[in-house]
Amino acid sequence: MNLNELCLALVKCDTEEDVxxxxxxxxxxxxxxxxxxxxxxxxxxxxxxNQQSKPETALVEKLINSVDAVxxxxxxxxxxxxxxxxAPQSIKEALILYYAIDEGKLTNITxxxxxxxxxxxxxxxxxxxxxxxxxxxxxxxxxxPAKLPTTIxxxxxxxxxxxxxxxxxxxMGGTGVFRFCGERNxxxxxxxxxxxxAQKDHDPTASFWGFTVIRREDPAQGVRSSxxxxxxxxxxxxxxxxxxxxxxxxxxxxxxxxxxxYGTFIKLYExxxxxxxxxxxxxxxxxxxxxxxxxxxxxxxxxxRRKGYSGHSYEGVLAGLSVRIxxxxxxxxxxxxxxxxxxPVNGQKMRYSIYVFKKGKHEKYTKDEGIIFxxxxxxxxxxxKSFFNRKAVGLGYLAESILVVLDCSEINGRDREDLFMxxxxxxxxxxLRLDIERExxxxxxxxxxxxxxxxxRRREEVESKLKDSKPLADILESVLRTSPxxxxxxxxxxxxxxxxxxxxxxxxPTFAGKEFPTVFSLVKKYPQNRPKTAxxxxxxxxxxxxxxxxxxxxxxxDPGTFKLLVNGVESxxxxxxxxxxxxxxxxxxxxxxxxxxxxxxxxxIDVSRSMPIVEEFYAAVVEPLxxxxxxxxxRKPPSSDEExxxxxxxxxxxxxxxxxxxxxxxxxxxxxxxxFNGHSALRVKGSEEDGYDFFVNTDNxxxxxxxxxxxxxxxxxxxxxxxxGLVLVGLALLQDSDKRNDSEGDGEDIPTQISRxxxxxxxxxxxxxESLGAIEMDAILAMPVEES
Length: 788
Description:
27% helix
């Protein structure tokens, strides 16, 4: 074969075996002189092997590289060097300048416009169902054969380090896919320089297509690790001339037939994408990639070209999670959401958006992701939904439904390096992460919209069951009171007669926010002679009354801007969030002195007005808050003017609500309400301040086995032992967690731990209670004592 024929033959391969056979036939595979070390480094595995740990996150890096290539190509086509001062200084600026995307967000252009834009980047699935072969192709700047060794085939080069409007700057994230490509990690790279850019390159190979194959070689004798090499016979990247190549997908089911005239084409043979992502590319993988790129800069066209799949479509546009949610928001998102806010942490400014899905709708968008940390629209790490079950958050009834996207794009370089691993797929356990988590805990716990929705969900799930659960709770209370030890442990708190804020309260009126505010005024004035009290080193809160929508400060189109000036100097030590006509502003008091009276000025501005809405107030700085020792001190006052928030926490647990569930619903409540199965035992929901609800599975297979052979008069006693035994175990685990701090790390949350432990002990709890209760003290005392 000539080089053109060889390249096209490799393009149309879908297995490693076929690639190897073609290269052997042409004398390359077994010729060691035809292969060069990737990055000219024999020890390249030490870097390449330390990239992304999951195949989908590695695949994202390749797509992000294509986005970068398209943006850099657009810049160079206009005669501007990407690292020049006149180049865009952010991805947002580049999208506005080159593609007229308002605010740089894909939600601001139509579906047809996104579809047209997606012709620049594509992801194609061919080959097997189990381990598909993926191709990523883009119409970006492209690389010449001479430049491939120092760009796509390099590590640690500073190709994009000084380009401000791209995502990938470390020049190694694209190698993360290697380990997931078949057994020999084979990959094809094909590229041609954009002709409009090549004219200024002074590169004699700029008009040619260059291609190579990357492979992994096992450790040779005396070598401690594998290494990666690429095909370069005579130390030269193979190249050939062609105006275009018909290598892009045409009409289904054809994977080839449409022309590619320039750009980059990368094929990942037999990619081990994992069992959960092997379906039609427009199903599970589409959903996963959307989550990993919540605010994707440029859309990607997806093509399913494997045989044997069914679906209403075999092509689609990937535009990120924010676009997916925006397109069908009314059917899937709770009223009033998304809402957003500012989260300042240690001088770093981050914005968060809170999405709350309607019951049963979250599975279309997320799995276990609860909080997404994103930079320039790409996920760099996540916290699981267990975060919302933490005591410091107390949103267990919403845990499955919440998704928070935290935009970390404005974090400075040093803190960004500390917070995220170089692989850009997970968080480090640095102090900044812990500080961010604490601020998020506080923001979510006190978010008025989340608190109201939590109460609504709990009312829907529990209120109708409380009448049935009261006799059980009364019996449990009498059982506990018969044992001084149990009473001392569990029932020092007062029982909760009504766990809901107001049983007979009228429903809140529907809030219909305006696009732009006509009012943004303080609910309570704080003039200089009656300033707001502000404890040094703590937060204080003031509220504004407004009539604007909840997403005003962070929406895609025409967002508003909030500024805060303290003593005439702009400050970032604040957070603000909107909920149904009220803006909650939290200000942190630092870098000042006790006794000082701060002059504070707020400004709200947007495209609808020439002058900002201004409010002024004063805050008097007083001594820092002090904590009592040994648990005997007073509780920290709330950072708001709400009444009833300073109640003392009861020392111990109130009697919980106990609700029985059965498979067929004969108890009045079905398994499906709590995702139970035959081995489920107990599930706990709620929080310390609202009280706990205990859901007990009275159709547990082990309980049914125990009562099957018993007399009817014994059954009720056995069921009671089972129920109350599990509840006591659950209370003990809650009591234990109350002594520890569960607000750090990604460990198992207490509700999950209780469910797991109770399921594990359900086979033995009844035999244990019955057997140990049958042991007579006299028999124990009569047992012979062995001499040592």
